[in-house]
Design brief:
GO terms for molecular function: thioredoxin-disulfide reductase (NADPH) activity. The protein contains six helices and 19 strands. By secondary structure, the protein is an alpha/beta fold. Bound molecules: NADP nicotinamide-adenine-dinucleotide phosphate. NADP nicotinamide-adenine-dinucleotide phosphate (NAP) binds near residues 158 and 287.
Length: about 300
């Protein structure tokens, strides 16, 4: 166990690194528990980010996150590549236990743990996970070069995945469960204009089929006509939204009915004094890199106000 710090930041996406930059510049030497396997958060698995202000020609997701990390370290943030397993957040000293066995204490904690991929929960999804079923086209798309693939979802992520895969796969079939997309107009227009992508509206995946080699097809159903068919596919990319990563908190801070951390008004204050939340884990609505970065900044300022009040 090391000395009690001023602040621990759990998570290393845009919210975590932005908080670390501000707190580092304030001289508070933040400790960032960055994650063992996925430091940098979801943008590390993204291709080009076109809508982060300041990069008129776009920037690759991994490069953007590396820049944020370097900027945080430049101002004295200390990074550990570990996952938080559990935490005791009540009381004046907060304790954070990591899977690697280390324990850290601090007077304040900022939770910026983001979210993970929602699953379809259909037969075959778990069985063929890593053998044709994927949640990340930029990570796994390469394996499906020249092969037919199915993408499930009607939001920006699914359309981004479909367009990315269209450059690699033989064909892309996009399954959208309603008669409407959830994605932004620019992404819908781009997708509909792509000759490699076939869009099936009102269509759900009922089952993912395969053999010893992996996925072979997807059984789909049209919810308007109840018509069923089997689509040949070697890969199935599931992009149906996110689930906030807040289970490790064990119910110590107030969550909403979907598991997002509840914060007080426009602040990042949670139901526990000295515990703050920023980014997607506390944002059921906007979920953008830039809005996460914005709340990371707020969390850093909220931490400083809280510490000042303790001193007063
Ligand atoms: P999302 O916007 O919540 O969309 C999820 C999609 O999956 C919706 O079309 C939803 O259908 C569908 N869906 C949910 N459960 C399903 C199921 N069991 N079976 C079939 N379809 C299902 O999630 P997202 O696309 O991951 O995006 C999350 C946030 O990140 C959004 O705010 C998005 O704008 C943002 N984002 C932005 C960019 C960008 O700006 N370049 C890129 C990626 C993501 P319904 O519509 O019927 O609910």
């Amino acid at each position: 166990m090391s000395e009690t710090r001023e602040v621990i930041i759990i998570g290393s996406g845009p919210a975590g690194y932005t908080a670390a930059i501000y707190l580092g510049r304030a001289g508070l030497k933040p400790l960032v528990v960055a994650g063992a396997l996925t430091p940098g958060g979801q943008l590390v698995n993204t291709t080009e980010v076109e809508n982060f202000p300041g990069f008129p020609d776009g920037i690759m997701g991994p490069e953007l996150m590396e820049n944020m990390q370097r900027q945080a370290e430049r101002f004295g943030a200390e990074l550990v590549y570990d996952d938080v397993e559990s935490a005791e957040l009540d009381g004046e000293t907060k304790t954070v236990h990591c899977s690697g066995g280390d324990t850290y204490t601090a007077r304040t904690v900022i939770v910026t743990t983001g979210s993970y991929y929602r699953h379809l929960d259909v037969p075959g999804e778990e069985e063929f996970g890593g053998h044709g079923v994927s949640y990340c086209a930029t990570c796994d798309g390469f394996f499906f070069r020249g092969k037919p693939v199915v993408v499930v979802g009607g939001g920006d992520s699914a359309l981004e995945e479909a367009n990315f895969l269209a450059n690699l796969a033989e064909s892309v079939t996009l399954l959208v469960r309603r008669d409407e997309f959830r994605a932004s107009k620019i992404m819908v227009d781009r997708t509909l204009a792509n000759p490699k992508i076939t869009v099936l509206m009102n269509t759900v995946a009922d089952r993912i089929n395969g053999d010893k080699q992996g996925v072979t097809s997807v059984s789909v159903r049209n919810t308007a006509t109840d018509g069923e068919e089997k689509l040949e596919a070697k890969g199935v990319f599931v992009a149906v939204g996110q689930v906030p990563q807040t289970a490790f908190l064990g119910g110590q801070v107030a969550l909403d009915e979907r598991g997002y951390i509840q914060v007080e008004g426009a602040s990042t204050r949670t139901s526990l004094p000295g515990v703050f939340a920023a980014g997607d884990c506390a944002d059921p609505v906007y979920q953008q890199a830039i809005s996460a970065a914005g709340t990371g900044c707020r969390a850093a300022l909220d931490v400083q106000m809280y510490l000042d009040e303790l001193e007063a």
